[in-house]
Amino acid sequence: MHFMKIKRRRSCCRPLGVSCLLCSILIFEVIDYLAWGYTTFWIAEPLYKFNWPLDVDLVDVVNNVLEKNDPDVEILNRYDDLGLKASPEKCSSDIDLLFVVKSAFNNEDRRQVIRSTWGSSKFSGSYNLNIKTIFIVASSDNEVHNRKVLHESSIHKDIVLFSFKDRYWNNIYKVFGEYEWVAANCSETKHTFFADDDCFVCSLALFDYIQKSSRYNFNHLSIGYLRERNPCNRKALSAWQVTLREYPFQHYPPYFTGGSYIFSTKYVVRLAIGMRYTKFFRVDDAYIGIVAHKLRVPLKHSNRFIFYSRSYDPRVLRTMIASHQFADPSDPKGGKKLSKAEKEKLKKEEAERKAKEEEEQKLLAEKEEAERKEREALEAIERKKEENEERKRRKWQLEELAEVWDRNVQNLEEFARIARSKAKWQRYMSCEWPDPTLLPEINTYINLWREDKSSSNIDTVLADNKKCLNLIEELHTILRVTPENEIIEEQKEQYNQTIVELEEILMEKLEKATYNVFLESYKFIDSSSLNLERVIENNNLTLACWGNLAKNARIKSYNFEEIGFQFDIPKLKLDDNADWGIRILVTNYDHYSHHCKTFYPRIKPKAEPTIIEEEEKKEDESDEKEEGEAKADDENEQKVDREETLDLDQALKDLESGEGENKDEEKEEEEEKDKEDDMEEEPLQIPTPDIPDFEEFDGAEDVIDLRAFQILGGIYHFNLCQLPPQPRALQNCTLTKVSNPEELVYVPYKAHYEEPKEENGEEKKKNGVELEEQKKDEKLPLLITLTYIKTIANLHNKNSALRFLLSLPKNVYFCEEPQVARWNEKDKEWSVDGFYEHNFEEEERRLTFKSLSFGTFSLVQDAHINMPFQTWEIRPRDVNHVLITVIAAIIEVEIEVKNDCCALIAPSDKEELQELIGKFLPVDQFITRMKAAGLNLFPESDSYKYVSVPDKVSNYFFLSF
C-alpha cells in the first residue's frame, strides 16, 4: 500500500514539472527578445541609411558591363568558383517562359512530378507559349548521389549541377549560380520564373497572366509575394539569427519570399551582373532584395503568390499563381470542414463571381471587337493606299520592262539575221561542197555520188561520210534557226526531202562498202581463229565485221574489244557450204528518230465551236424585243417629262435664292475629289501567251515516246549477213563467183525465249504431279502422242535468244540505267519489245541483255530525268559574263556564259563530260552537245506534260506583283 501511494504521488507531479519547463522556456524567450531582439532593433541603423558593399553606384557598373566596358571596381563573386559539373543546352530565342527550380540532390521524385505537371510544355500549347524547365542542384557528400544526379541529367538534359555542397546556408550560392546561368545561356528568353521544388504552381493561371502581360506590352515584370520593412531576426537562440556585424540595419529592403517569383529576363541579367559586385548575405531572399534595391529594380506585390501553406480551396486555385506548399485535399487535416450554410454561401459567392467575370469578359470582348474593327478599317485604308502606290510603281516598272524587252528582242532578231546573212555569204563563197539549199546543185551531187562505183571502197566512203553529214547538219540547222516568216512550206518540204535522200545514199554507200569488206574476207583472216575479223573507225562511225570462215561450231561468242561489244554466235541451220558473217555498224548520229511521228511536238488542233441556227427562236425574240422597245420608249418619254418639270422648278428656286450655281460647283468639286481618292491605278495588262495544248501519246506500251525519252550514244546496227562467194586460188589464177546484184544479203533470224524457272519446292511438287499424270496417260491414243512429240521437236529446232554485252559510250553520261530499243522500219518507231534479262553494272558501265533478233538498236534515257530543278542562280562575273548554277534533280551543273558563247564548268570530275569542260561554243551548238552528252537541262514547250511541277496559286502569284 505504501508503494502504491508513493507511485501515485510521482504521477501527480508530472504535469507540474512539464508546466514549469514550459514557463521557463517562455520566460527565457521573452528575456531573449527583450535583451537582443528589441534592444538591437533600436541600436541598428534605419533603412534610409542603407549602404552595402561594394559602396558604389551599382547601376553605372552594370551599364558599363552591358556596354562591354571594364568597370573601375573589382569583382567580388565569380561564377567559375561554383564549379559547374553539368549543364543543359542553351535556350533558343523563341522561349517565352523559363522555369528555374532550386532542388536538393535527393529530391528526384519532386523533379519528376514537376516535369510531368506544371513544368511540362504540354499545358502551354493553347496559350501559344514556348516554355523550358531547368533545375539548380548542388553536390552531395556521397558520390553515389552525385552519380545519380549526373545520370538523371544525361537523360532529361535539364539539370544544372554545381560542385559546392548542398547546405542550407549555401542557398546563396545556388541563387548566384542560377542567375548567372540564365544570364549566360537564356538571356534572349522573355520571362524567368524562379521557384523551389516544394512550391505548388498553377501553370494555367501563370500562362494566362503572361499572355495578358504580352498583350499590354508589359515587358518589365517583377512580381511575387513582397515583404516590405521586414525586421531582422536578432534572437540569440534562433537558427536564423542575424547579428549586427552581419547586417547593421533595422529592416531588409523589399524582397520576394515564398520561394517563387517572376522576373523579366532583362532584370535577371542585370541582377546577375550586380551580384558579382555585391557582398554575399546568407539570407538568400533578402540578398536578392538588397541587389534589386541597389539596382533600383522595382518589385511589385501580388496576392496571387502565397507564402504560407494553404488548405485546399477551389476559390484559391482559380486566382493563385504559386504557393509555398499546398495542403492535400484528401487529407482531413488539411482544412476545416465547412458547414452547410458556409457551403451555400460559397456557392452563392462563386455564382456571383462567375456572373461578374462573364459580364466583364463580355464588355471587354465588345471593347476589343470594336477596337479591332476600327484598327482593321484604318489598316484597310492604309493598305489600299499602299497597294495603289504599288500598282503605280508596278505599272511604271512593267512599262519600262516591256520597252527593254522589246528592244532586246529586236536586237536579238537583228543579231540572228546578221549571223544568218554572214553564214549564207560564207556558204556562197565556199567551194568545198555543193549548197544543199539549191536543188540543182544537190541533185547533181547525189546522182554523181550514186553513179560513182569507185567510191564504194570503205576508206573512200568514210571520207565522203563526213561531207554528207555536214550537208545534212546544215539543212537541219537552217530548218531550226530560220524564222517562220522567212521560209515557206515548199522550201521546208524540199529541205526535208533532200535530207532523206542524203541519208539513203549514205546508207547505201556504207552497205556497199561492207559488202566489199566481206568480199575480200581472205585478206583479213585472223591467224589464230581463221575467221574474218576487222574493225574500221573514224570520228563519226565504227564498222566491225566478223565472218565464220573456219566454220568452228565450238565458238560460242566473240568480243570486239575496240568498240566494247560482245555477242553470242548464233547457231544457224544453214547450208554447210554457206558462209555468213556479222556486221556491227555504230554511228554517232541518228538518222532514224526524226522520221518517227513522236519526234516533234504534237499540238492539238483547236476545236471550232458549232453554231446552231434557230430561225424560229430568233423571230420570236425579235418580236418580243420590238414590243419591249415600244414600251420602254413610252416610259422614257413620261420620265423625261417629269424630270424636265422637276428640273425647271428647281432651277427657278435656285435663281430666286442665287445659290444654284455655287451648289453645283461645290457638288462637282466634291465628286471629283472622291473620284480621285477612290481611283485605283490600273496595272499594265501584259497579254499572257496562250499555252498550246498537246496531244497525248497514243502508241503501244512498248513504243518509245520521243517527247519523253531521248536516244543517247548513237545507233547500233547489228546484222546477220550472208557472205558473198569467196575467191578460190588456182595454180595460175583466182576464180570468183559474181553475185547479181552485188549487195548485202541479210539472213532472217527469229529466236525463241523462255523465262528461267526457279527450282523451288512448289515447282518440284508440280513436276512430280505432272510425271504421275503422264504415267496415268500412257495409254493415250497413238495419234495424240505423235503430235506431242512433233511439237517438242519443233520447239527444240527454234533459235535461242542472243546475249549481248555492251560497254556504254565514253562520252555520254547516263543518269540511270538505260533502256534498249529496236527500230521498227515498217512503223517508223522505236520499241522496247523483244529484250530480256537486262543487267546493268554501274561501276563498269556495262549493259547485258538478250534479244530475239538482229536489227538496229539504241540506248534510251528519260529526257526529263533532271527536271524539275531544285534551285538555280545567276551570278555576274564581268560585263556580258555570268555564271549559271543549276542544282537539278540528279546532278549539279555550272555553266559559264561569255558574250554569245557558253561553256560547261562543272561537274569537272565526270570523265564522260571532259570534252565539254571549259570549251566555249555558240548557244545552239552548246545545247546540242549537252543533250548528246546526256545532260538535258533545256525544257521544251511540252515538257510540262512529262514533269510534275506544282501549279502556282494564282491569287498569291499575282499578289507578288
UniProtKB/TrEMBL annotation:
Coiled coil: 485-512
Entry membrane topology: Single-pass type II membrane protein
Extent of Acidic residues compositional bias: 611-627, 666-683
Segments forming domain IC97/Casc1 N-terminal: 353-554
GO cellular component: axoneme; Golgi membrane
Record GO terms (molecular function): beta-tubulin binding; hexosyltransferase activity; microtubule binding
Protein family (similarity comment): Belongs to the glycosyltransferase 31 family. Belongs to the DNAI7 family.
Keywords: Coiled coil, Glycosyltransferase, Golgi apparatus, Membrane, Signal-anchor, Transferase, Transmembrane, Transmembrane helix
Residue ranges, annotated region (Disordered): 327-369, 607-694
Compartments it resides in: Golgi apparatus membrane
Biased composition (Basic and acidic residues): 330-369, 628-665
UniProt protein name: DgyrCDS13901
Transmembrane segments: none
Gene3D superfamilies attached to this UniProt entry: 3.90.550.50
Pfam families: Casc1_N, Galactosyl_T
